[in-house]
TrEMBL record:
Any one annotated GO CC term: endoplasmic reticulum membrane
Protein name: Immediate early response 3-interacting protein 1
Similarity comment: family membership: Belongs to the YOS1 family.
Keyword Transport: yes
Key words, A-Z: Membrane, Protein transport, Signal, Transmembrane, Transmembrane helix, Transport
Signal peptide: 1-18
Subcellular localization(s) per the UniProt record: Membrane
Length: 78
C-alpha cells in the first residue's frame, strides 16, 4: 500500500461524506446540523463529525475536480 492508495482512500471517504443527504438520512437519525447548533454541542465528538460531514458537502466542486484528476492519472498511468 503506497501513498497513492492512501490518497485514493481519503478521496473515496470524502466523496461518501459529501453525498449524505440531511433530510433523508442524517436528520431522522439525530445527526442534523440544526441539532448541534441549537444545543451548542459543536465541541463533542458527534458535533465534530457532523461538522466534517458539512465541510465535505460544502466542498463538492473541488471534490469533483479531484475525482477528475484522479481518473485521468489512473488512465494515464495504467
Amino acid at each position: 500500500m503506497g501513498l497513492w492508495t492512501l490518497l485514493e482512500g481519503f478521496l473515496l471517504l470524502a466523496n461518501a461524506l459529501a453525498i449524505l443527504n440531511e433530510e433523508r438520512f442524517l436528520a431522522p437519525k439525530g445527526w442534523g446540523f440544526s441539532e448541534v447548533s441549537t444545543s451548542g454541542g459543536a465541541k463533542t465528538l458527534k458535533g465534530q463529525i457532523i461538522g466534517l460531514i458539512y465541510a465535505a458537502q460544502y466542498l463538492r466542486v473541488p471534490l469533483i475536480v479531484l475525482d477528475a484528476i484522479t481518473i485521468l492519472v489512473m488512465l494515464i498511468s495504467g
